[in-house]
């Protein structure tokens, strides 16, 4: 089984607009490594007031999570995203980080803060549990079967469909703005954390619920793990996302960067890929607005 896992071919997932690489395998493919483990670590449950070891809460263990993994949804510079289906039928999403730069206690402290904040807002994906072990560091969140905004826009464009009407697009824009406003209003809670910045805004992190409300994912995850821009550049399905000058090296967390990325999301929703391409040409009379009559109502659905 080990040889099969090592020789697994790269797989591409339309869901989440991300591509899985051979170097990042599903947890289930490592199951044989853990069969002989003497100790099975318990996941820490996250509640409204943070994360605690609660005997009355979830009792997921590392082996439970490994067995529940049914497939890789995608990969970004932060890590691998997997879908979990437990025996009781509950579906969740696991975010397994590639390179965590904080220790066990600090990781638990930061996840607790992020979990507490995310559960106070209806437009953020809540963190349900986490685990910090020698081999794996991950968080477990809710699963949204409709996928991300990028899935709806990019997948439909390739098939010539119109995935969203104007009311649905306006709702997504409004909810995303509310999520960003909530994050930006957060007071400082720790001198070593920046809690009033998302840090990784893009259409693949806007999860769509069945009523077309949104949940913003990956809030604060750049405070836990190192982002690897080289991995993102290998994802041909990911939307173009140029960085503002002050964040060109992806090292500075700022609200200005969040607003810049929100502007790119607006262009993607309203103008499509041509509008995003115009950002790389400096908006020199190449925007869809100048080509299609000058009013938003005259644009075609992307």
Automatic annotation (TrEMBL):
Residues 67-302 form the Protein kinase domain. Gene3D superfamilies: Transferase(Phosphotransferase) domain 1 (1.10.510.10). It comes from the Eukaryota. InterPro entries: Kinase-like_dom_sf, PRK1-6/SRF4-like, Prot_kinase_dom, Ser-Thr/Tyr_kinase_cat_dom. It holds the Pfam family PK_Tyr_Ser-Thr. GO terms for molecular function: ATP binding; protein kinase activity. This is Protein kinase domain-containing protein.
């Amino acid at each position: 089984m080990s040889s099969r896992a090592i020789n697994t071919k790269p797989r591409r997932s339309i869901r989440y607009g991300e591509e899985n690489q051979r170097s990042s395998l599903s947890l289930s493919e490592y199951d044989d490594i853990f069969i002989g483990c003497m100790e099975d670590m318990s996941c820490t449950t996250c509640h409204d007031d943070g994360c605690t070891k609660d005997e009355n809460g979830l009792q997921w263990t590392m082996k439970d999570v490994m067995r529940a993994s049914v497939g890789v949804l995608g990969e970004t510079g932060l890590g691998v995203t997997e879908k979990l289906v437990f025996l009781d039928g509950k579906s969740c999403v696991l975010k397994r980080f590639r390179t965590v730069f904080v220790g066990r206690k600090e990781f638990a402290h930061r996840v607790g803060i992020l979990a507490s904040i995310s559960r106070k807002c209806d437009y953020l994906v809540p963190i349900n549990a986490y685990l910090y072990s020698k081999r794996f560091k991950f968080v477990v969140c809710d699963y949204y079967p409709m996928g991300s905004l990028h899935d709806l826009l990019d997948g439909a464009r390739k098939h010539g469909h119109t995935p969203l009407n104007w009311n649905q697009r306006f709702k997504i824009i409004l909810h995303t703005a509310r999520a960003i406003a909530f994050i930006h209003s957060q007071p400082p809670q720790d001198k070593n954390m920046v809690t009033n910045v998302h840090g990784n805004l893009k259409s693949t992190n806007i999860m769509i619920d069945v009523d077309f409300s949104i949940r913003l994912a990956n809030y604060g995850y750049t405070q836990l793990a190192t982002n690897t821009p080289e991995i993102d550049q290998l994802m041909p399905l990911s939307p173009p996302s140029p960085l503002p000058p002050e964040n060109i090296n992806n090292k500075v967390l700022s609200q200005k960067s969040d607003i810049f990325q929100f502007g790119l999301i607006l262009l993607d929703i309203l103008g499509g890929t041509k509008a995003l391409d115009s950002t790389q040409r400096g908006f020199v009379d190449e925007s869809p607005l100048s080509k299609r009559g000058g009013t938003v109502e005259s644009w075609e659905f992307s």
